[in-house]
Design a protein that fits this description.
Oligomer: single chain
Shape: globular
CATH architecture of the largest domain: 3-Layer(aba) Sandwich
Structural class: alpha/beta
Mean pLDDT: 89
Largest sheet: 6 strands, mixed
Distance between the termini: 32 Å
């Protein structure tokens, strides 16, 4: 049901909780939709460090009607909810909290369907089960990407990550839904030899480039690994099979340097802003009962 309030009513409070979130454009999107649809509501950012998140949820700064939750708090958001969707239970992560009449929370995950929507849009039309998809990284964002691809009916996903630990858990998590092949970072230069066409998309989910971050030893080491992606070989392999170039989707924004590199190689490439919009629109729908009109955000 749409929450349209009169001028005398209390303004509904929404927000984003995470760490760090200085780069987030969620307030720009949601406050724009609130204004466009005449909703008496406000959306703000709440940067909450990991060591403070339990006390923050126990004593929030105000009574929220709904929240978005981003890294590294998505697992906790799933745990504190009274009710949760099937995808929250599968992923053990929530990015959207909806206030229940009881005062508790219902947890939803719009990351997975957001990925599905964006991948379908960029590849163009329906995804064939034959499409092979590469996902770089094995963390929570990669899990959401794999879930979204499973929604689309993709049958094979190649996950490039540090083999063991997170990558093995990711493979086991989706064993009943999709075939996941693990490729070690050290093998990234041989990617074109390991994957037969049609290659539909490469999806980058590591922290590289998040909030414009390209500095620091760990980030630079990751950038060096990703720098070995055989972009041209992947495009040419599709071309030899009479297939359009694959697309490259970066889950972060502003875009990592990978987007420009992919475009030079002939990929259709995008940063994470379309993904942000897709996920945000679905969160809005959970709160208000309808999808808002699309609003462009600054890049």
């Amino acid at each position: 049901m749409t929450k349209v309030k009169s001028a005398t009513d209390t303004i509904a409070r929404y927000g984003l909780v995470g760490w760090p979130i200085e780069h987030s454009r969620s307030p720009e999107l949601h406050n724009g939709w609130f204004a466009k649809h005449g909703l008496a509501a406000e959306y703000e950012k709440y940067p909450v460090a990991p060591e403070e998140v339990e006390s923050w949820f126990a004593q929030p700064p105000c009574e929220f009607d709904g929240l978005n939750v981003t890294m590294p708090h998505k697992n906790m958001a799933a745990q504190l909810a009274e009710e949760s969707s099937d995808w929250v239970q599968i992923l053990q992560a929530a990015n959207t909290l909806i206030r229940l009449p009881s005062g508790g929370w219902r947890a939803e995950n719009t990351d997975a369907p957001g990925f599905a929507e964006v991948v379908r849009s960029f590849i163009g039309g329906e995804i064939s089960p034959a499409h092979r998809i590469v996902v770089f990284g094995a963390g929570a964002t990669a899990s959401a990407a794999v879930a979204g691809l499973a929604m689309l009916g993709v049958s094979e996903i190649f996950v490039v990550a540090r083999v063991g630990g997170q990558a093995e858990r990711l493979k086991a998590q989706f064993a009943d839904l999709v075939a996941i092949h693990l490729i070690a970072w050290e093998e990234i230069a041989n990617l074109a030899k390991k994957i037969d066409p049609p290659l539909g998309a490469l999806i980058h989910t590591t922290p590289l480039g998040m909030g414009g971050q390209h500095e620091g030893d760990s980030v630079q080491a990751l950038e060096a690994l990703l720098g070995a992606i055989p972009w041209q070989d992947l495009v040419e392999k599709n071309a030899l099979a009479g297939i359009a170039p694959p697309v490259f989707l970066d889950a972060v924004y502003p875009a990592s340097r990978l987007v420009a590199t992919a475009q030079k190689a002939g990929f259709s490439a995008s940063d994470g802003v379309p993904l942000l919009r897709a996920q945000a629109r679905l969160s809005f729908q959970h709160w208000f009962g309808f999808l808002p009109e699309a609003i462009e955000t600054k890049r």
